[in-house]
Specification:
The chain is an alpha+beta fold. The protein has helices at residues 30-43, 66-86, 139-153, 176-186, 207-212, 215-218, 257-265, 273-280, and strands at residues 2-10, 13-20, 45-58, 61-65, 90-95, 98-99, 112-114, 122-123, 129-130, 170-171, 190-201, 226-230, 234-242, 247-255. The longest helix has 21 residues, at 66-86. It is globular and about 50 Å long.
Amino acid sequence: MFRFAYRLLAPGALVLLLAGCASNSLKLSPAFYADHRHALQEAGRVAVITDACVVRDQVGVDYIIRVESTERGKAMRVGMQQYLHRQGLETVLAQAPFVCGNLRGDPPEGLSIADAKGDERAPVTRLPILIDGEDAMSPETATAMNALLAAAALIPATRNQKGKTEPDPAMIEIARDDLSILRDAIGARHLVIAQYSRLEVSAGKSLGVAMITGLASAAMAGPFIYASYPITGANFSLSLIDLDRGALLWKRQIVAPPVETEMRKRKVEPLGEAWAEHLLKPLFGAEP
């Protein structure tokens, strides 16, 4: 099981990271989880943002699949809200405002989108890709949230740090004005971000080719593009953000196929409340 990430660090410089993992969030101390759980319980309120990105990678063309991405983002939003409510927390905001919310900056040449696999494609002319209706945000808030998602995506899963009993929070590289906009719009100190990404590689395209063509190579045309996709299956990411401090307190990442398979055996929705419980259970007193 592999996933890859690409980030444009400087014009013409593309860094490709390849790692195999089933879960890259190492076991942390019970005290670490208890501290954050108590902070959430004391606040009594939390905001939730969910985001999904399904990309089809085939010979000659790569494109984002809009409807599946949108539906998965909304399913995660509902599941997270239900589970957090069961933990006694008020969700003051719960939205899935984007498709592929990690993508930021000028759209690279060749980036396209289709409603479903095999449908007619259209070029992406603007990022972020916004969702209308109940999940819509104001333009100012959407821009700030897009910046937060892209910055948080670059921070690795929380791990134990040598010489420390608990890992330090990771400061998020985001403009103060954007952070202020989000604090005012959200109305809660703590924000939970749940993200899903999947890269579908066609049978006619090899693993090596998939890494160096399509969206990955197109990213070199933009000032800043970040994405993280597994080559098979799906990648889930869960982040707990402290908006007052501009810090990521805890992040968990899972490559999902084994878990999704188990969910289906139990006849529960893989992206519903049971999945939210699986992602958040270390925080609420259960073993990961």
